[in-house]
Amino acid sequence: MPLTIPAERWYKALRLRRSRRRFLPRPLGPDEHTRLEVLCRDFSPFPGARAVVVNASPEEVFKGFLGHYGKIKGAPAFTVFIGQPGDPHTQEKVGFLGEAVVLEATSLGLGTCWVAGFFRPDAAASLAGAAPDERVLAVTPVGCVAEEWSFEEKAMAGFGRSHRRKPLSDLVTGPPEKEWPIWIRAALEAARLAPSAVNRQPWRFLVREESITLSTDDLNDSYGISKRLDCGIAMLHIEVACRVHGIAGGWRFLDPPGVATWQIEQSDAIPEADVIERGISPIRGNAWPALRRRT
Ligand SMILES: Cc1cc2nc3c(=O)[nH]c(=O)nc-3n(C[C@H](O)[C@H](O)[C@H](O)COP(=O)(O)O)c2cc1C
After folding, report:
1. Which of 55, 68, 126, 228 has a CA positioned 20 to 30 A from the CA of residue 81?
2. What is the CA radius of gyration of the chain?
3. Which of 21, 79, 81, 114 to probe ligand 1 with, by most ligand atoms within 8 A of CB?
């Protein structure tokens, strides 16, 4: 049965998620594995984008990549994100789908880290059973992580720098902030917390009364990783935040540097107080509510 977005669960998860690169020597529990497998099987927001959970160490996939960035240790499992090279929107579609897996894993208390730069796509494709006409765009290790970050992880994250986000004022054009309805603010704050390669935050947002349009800041990809992949991740954060606030809508893909427009189809906007009553606090500024909690 097709799976719809579990908006509240993923909205909570998108605030807790942080990239984790050191894993505990513990296999995935059967329930954790099944939940991820079911998601990969049943969540299919865009045909041609798919994800495969591999319940084995990703050692082969990361073998040979030295240095700090991208060094993943000890993961018991990983997920492979696969797209169609002929589709001009494959990057954003795979970003959207892949982040769904990441948020589901986060909601299960597992650690993840998008890796699109320093890995072996051929090894990942073979372990995931990708077809010759498919292309692996990224992977994430999945597994249990220690509550406290290891020294190496902290060093890699530049003691917080790699998690800092740009202020919305640098990212958004459109009406002034004070005129934004709650759902627009929530969607933009959620998008801003999305992970991006080397934390480059390439997304730009054009706000209108009933839509949010994402574009990339420019057409120059860095590290050979498409900025549209980052934007696909931010798209899922936007949709999740909108759904939590009672806003249904749909995506229309755009030509570069545009990525996609979220257009409202139905608005039963929920007042912020009601959202808070359901145990979901609003996102405000750069603060993660649970920086030191297990992700
Ligand atoms: C598309 C994409 C590719 C990434 N590639 C890598 C990678 O190759 N190696 C790595 O260690 N981290 C990678 N990251 C993780 C980013 O460095 C991380 O998301 C960013 O610094 C923000 O930190 P946070 O995820 O903890 O919020 C990638 C993230 C994204 C979204």
Report:
1. 68
2. 18
3. 114
